[in-house]
Specification:
This protein has 328 residues and is of the alpha+beta class. It folds into 2 domains: 113 residues, Phosphorylase Kinase, domain 1, CATH 3.30.200; 200 residues, Aminoglycoside phosphotransferase (APH), C-terminal lobe (Aminoglycoside 3'-phosphotransferase, Chain: A, domain 2, Alpha-Beta Complex). Helix content is 44%, strand content 14%. The strands form 3 sheets. Strands 1-2-3-5-4 form a 5-stranded antiparallel sheet.
């Protein structure tokens, strides 16, 4: 049984941030976190009524089999205080909004894990706003589109996660397209053992991936991408501005990888985010690879005790059908 944070675990930490007069009155673990714990901590006795706590405790990571990960792989699970702080600095330098950091600590003296306390953007996600206030949601989407443009135009001569590049490291792989191809082939191998439909289409999927990859031409400049930029990873502040969260995977990479994800997650609203000049060959390869990733990843989570099992089943099933539909 996992031991997740309670009021008594977080009270001292939050008082260190907001002052001794602060009293914690409630703690809620927010839905969706699979690599870190995200807690809304409600308080009184201070002008702030709530803060968000990120905990990178081992117990908060629901992904099985995380030992021996190649941290130079841009697709390696991105989690931890260092990637978070580096991503925060990178975005701030571009004027891209993320929650303001109130405290970041890796000493484990204040809390028995790496931890950050950030402002609570309590107006909700862009995903929720599309339903509750479409006009405000549209304005925030336009704001997001401008932020994404800034990020995607911020080019680097090498690809890789920003924390690795900042430390002078070099990402693994021969190219973005080769990394995507290799990952997709591994996803097929893994998923074939779990679902007979992928197993039956194994050869056709591999042939299609290799054919699409052969059409991609080399590239030497890479934009800054979030990596999982869905409307659930965008908050909207009181002024209506978009605020990015779950930023630890921030990296320089082919922007087509981001646009494929944006297309899947924003659906009919994607045209606001779409831009001319994208490489159609990369888009074709990355769309099939993304679908396969969104089958393999959720099925992997189901090996563990991730709480929202039904959602993972739904994501895997939907993307499996869509992947097979991309075969000629």
């Amino acid at each position: 049984m996992r031991e997740l944070a309670e009021i008594e675990d977080l009270s001292g930490l939050v008082r260190d941030v907001l002052g001794s007069g602060c009293r914690v009155v409630a703690v809620d673990r927010l839905r969706g976190g699979s690599k870190k714990g995200v807690y809304r901590v409600r308080v009184d006795g201070t002008p702030m009524t709530s803060v968000i706590v990120y905990s990178w405790a081992e117990e908060e990571n629901f992904w099985p089999g995380q030992n021996g990960i190649d941290t130079s792989d841009p697709f390696a699970p991105a989690s931890g205080l260092v990637p978070f702080l580096t991503a925060q600095r990178s975005l701030a330098g571009l004027g891209v909004r993320a929650p303001r950091i109130l405290l970041a600590d890796d000493s484990q003296h204040l809390y028995p894990a790496d931890v950050a306390v950030v402002e609570d953007i309590s107006c909700g996600t862009l995903e929720a706003l599309f339903e509750s206030d479409p006009a405000r949601g549209t304005a925030a989407l336009n704001d997001l589109a401008a932020m994404v443009d800034v990020m995607h135009r911020h080019l680097a001569p090498t690809y890789g996660r920003v924390d690795l590049l900042e430390q002078g490291g070099t990402a693994s792989g021969a190219s973005c397209e080769q990394l995507v191809l290799d990952r997709a082939l591994r996803d097929i191998e893994e998923t074939s053992g779990r679902d007979r439909r992928i197993a039956a289409a194994d050869g056709h999927l591999r042939e299609r991936l290799h054919g699409l990859a052969a059409l991609v031409t080399p590239r030497t400049a890479y934009g800054l991408i979030h990596g999982e930029l869905g409307p659930d990873h965008v908050l909207v502040d009181a002024d209506g501005h978009a605020v990015l969260i779950d930023i630890e995977g921030l990296m320089h990479f082919d922007i087509e990888w981001e646009h494929v994800f944006l297309q899947l997650r924003f659906g009919k609203r994607y045209p606001v985010l779409s831009r001319p000049g994208l490489d159609p060959q990369r888009l074709d390869l990355y769309m099939l690879a993304m679908r396969l990733s969104l089958v393999a990843g959720p099925l992997r989570l189901l090996d563990g005790d991730y709480p929202d099992q039904a959602l993972m089943h739904e994501i895997a099933e939907h993307n499996l059908k869509e992947a097979l539909a991309l075969l000629p």
